[in-house]
Amino acid sequence: MVAKDTISSIVVFLFSLGAFVLAQGYGGGAELFPRGLAIIMMLASAGMFVRAIFWPAAIPEGVPKMERSERNVVAFCVIATMAYVALIVPLGFATASVIFIIVISYALGMRNHLAIWVTAIGFVGLLYFLFVHIFHTPLPSDLILGLLGI
Amino acid sequence: MFHDIFTALIEMMTVGTIVAMICGTCLGICLGALPGIGATLGIALAIPFTYGMGPLPALALLAGIHNGSSQGGAIPAILLNMPGTPGSIVTTWDGHPLAQQGKAGGAINLSAISCAVGGSLSALSLILLAPPLAKVALAFGPPEIFWVNVFGIATVAALLGNDLLKGFIAACFGLFISAIGLDNVSGHERYTFGMLELVNGVATVAVMVGMFSLPPAWNLVRQARKRESATGSMGRIQIISERIWTVAGVWRAWAVASFIGIINGILPGSAIASFIAYNEAKRVSKNPEKFGKGSIEGLAAAECVNAADNASALIPTLTLGVPGSNVAALMLGALLIQGFQPGPQLFRDAPEIVYGYSWALVITALLLIPLGGALASRVFANVLRIPTSLLLPLIIVIASAGVFASQNSMFDVYVAAFFGLVGLAMIRFDFPIAPVIIGLVLGAKAEFNLRVSLMMSAGDYSILIFRPICIILIILTILIVTFPLYRAYQDWRNRRAKGGQGEISAEH
């Protein structure tokens, strides 16, 4: 808990200091609000730091620490999500989403092949239909659907 | 006022709005039934879909999700002893024992009717209490509105988390995000780093969806094993919808729980309403010994209070533009997206919207009786069988599609992913997320009113202090901020006293 608060207070302080310095260049009163906020954040982070160092008993109880195995699974899901977001433009929404659903389901231990493939294709197809044909909102153009001429 | 209320009811009676209410309620029940999801994530995911809808159907859909998820949480609580939402913890105490006695269907039915009672009374309180408050708030000028915003942000920062300092840092972070882009008054670009996409500011939807839906989705895998082993035993539970209650047996519990829920909703920050209502229902009950062993009154109180703070929590949101909970903050964002500025002017400028939304809350609460009872126990309970390994990617795909579609911008999807990571880091470092969203949605308004006040006084800051309503709001803000400090001091004293007693008994 002490380490968490010490690290986060330093990060917040540096972030606020950066925001304060950047705001110096804004004129016409545009600097007033962000600089005021930066000062409040710096004071609060300094308070957090002092509390963590000199009065650790006053730190309220936080979320329990994750087990190593849990941490690995969450990290995998986060990385997979970032990869999915990065692949939406090159592959298109439908293709990237189907691949993402299938990969995550298998990676998290699901082995019902029919359920995975039917859900992935059916769900993404339904979402695509809803957005494109019902809400008339285009989704990022798709590689495979483009080749199929859909 | 009464003319507006009845006109709004007539305007709500269109096919589109009724379908939106039914779909929203069904969706809400399903989302509430999935442990780890609930109203906040459901509404965050649904908001981008409402872009293409008219304001009333959009708000009706969100009202349905809000009320539906309150009742949905009771399904896993009763069937699996696993609360779907934090408010359903108390439901497990009597709901699951009833299921073990073979009364699962009756218990789900009672939970639906209790939610309908609490939800509709809460919505009626919104209809009756909000307009007078809005009338008072209409007299506020820019300095008062600035302090109302500060009060709202301070309330959420101080009361929604368990750490005042972290709550304030989170709120200030949200205010910072709102400052990104073109300054409304001077026209200067702030924190855009030369990126054209940031000139108009960060999309509120992207931040809301990123922070409220991605971290819970990623964290779902942590509870996957527990949930899936519990769901495996569902097949053995017999769901028979026999009537296990009478109005005469539960009316006291409903009355107490509704009152506590409504008050709790208006005064934000208290997460213990269900515990208080349960204890009070036990105190006024003729059979307190049955509580915890399958008491009908205990279940009725627990479920009634869960729904009773839904609409009343929107009273400060709609009248003052100050949200007091995660869902209220999201609803504020939803209204802004639809082009409405929540606050007293909304009652004057668009009464059909504010009363229409209130009616949607009443109707969706009543829809829980047919949809949340027998139908929920037979049909919606099956959503519990969806494995987490499949649910997680589906949530992320819906979130990405919704954020993209809101402004046809891939940049918003990247922003959502970035704020998802920020949200995850904040949760790991024990920072609350709700103040960020509230800072974000109130930031522009707070800054605008601050700058206008200073223009009015030619830069004299005393305009912010020496006005009667400002003084009251400043005192209230100070009280709100000092209350957690006082509570922390009391806890520390109690701990010290217990430590002292421990030492004395150890000596003996």
Write the layout of secondary structure elements.
The complex is a heterodimer of chains A (150) and B (508).
Chain A: H1 2-23, H2 32-54, H3 68-91, H4 93-107, H5 113-134, H6 143-148
Helix pairs in contact in A: 1-2, 3-4, 4-5
Chain B: H1 2-12, H2 15-33, H3 38-46, H4 55-72, H5 74-80, H6 89-100, H7 104-137, H8 142-159, H9 164-179, E1 181-182, E2 189-190, H10 204-220, H11 224-232, H12 247-266, H13 273-284, H14 296-312, H15 314-320, H16 326-337, H17 344-349, H18 351-372, H19 374-378, H20 388-407, H21 410-428, H22 434-456, H23 468-507
Antiparallel strand pairs in B: 1-2
Helix pairs in contact in B: 1-18, 2-3, 2-4, 2-18, 3-4, 3-10, 3-16, 4-14, 4-16, 4-18, 5-6, 5-7, 6-7, 6-14, 7-12, 7-14, 7-15, 7-18, 8-9, 8-22, 8-23, 9-22, 10-20, 10-21, 12-13, 12-14, 13-14, 16-22, 20-21
Overall number of domains of chain B: 1
Q: What is the C-alpha radius of gyration of chain A, as a whole number of Å?
A: 24 Å
Count the helices of chain B. How many? 23
Strand adjacency order, main sheet of chain B? 1-2
Calculate Rg of chain B over CA atoms: 23 Å
Instruction: Using the alpha-carbon principal axes, give the shape of chain A.
Output: flat
Secondary-structure element series of chain B: HHHHHHHHHEEHHHHHHHHHHHHHH
Largest sheet of chain B: 2 strands, antiparallel
- Integer tally of domains of chain A: 2
What is the chains' assembly state? heterodimer
Specify which chain pair forms the largest interface. A-B, 67 and 61 residues
What report would you give on this structure?
The complex is a heterodimer of chains A (about 150) and B (about 500). Chain A has about 150 residues and is mostly helical. Chain A has two domains: about 1-60; about 70-150, no CATH class. In chain A, about 75% of the residues lie in helices and about 0% in strands. Chain A is built from six helices and no strands. Chain A has helices at about 1-25, 30-55, 70-90, 95-105, 115-135, 145-150. In chain A, helix 1 (about 1-25) packs antiparallel against helix 2 (about 30-55), helix 3 packs antiparallel against helix 4 (about 95-105) and helix 4 (about 95-105) runs antiparallel to helix 5. Chain A is flat and about 60 Å long. The mean pLDDT of chain A is about 85. With about 500 residues, chain B is mostly helical. Chain B has one domain (about 1-500). Helix content of chain B is about 75%, strand content about 0%. Chain B contains 23 helices and two strands. Chain B has helices at about 1-10, 15-35, 40-45, 55-70, 75-80, 90-100, 105-135, 140-160, 165-180, 205-220, 225-230, 245-265, 275-285, 295-310, 315-320, 325-335, 345-350, 350-370, 375-380, 390-405, 410-430, 435-455, 470-505, and strands spanning about 180, 190. In chain B, strands 1-2 form a two-stranded antiparallel sheet. Chains A and B meet through helix 1, helix 2, helix 3, helix 4 and helix 5 of A and helix 9, helix 10, helix 20, helix 21 and helix 22 of B.
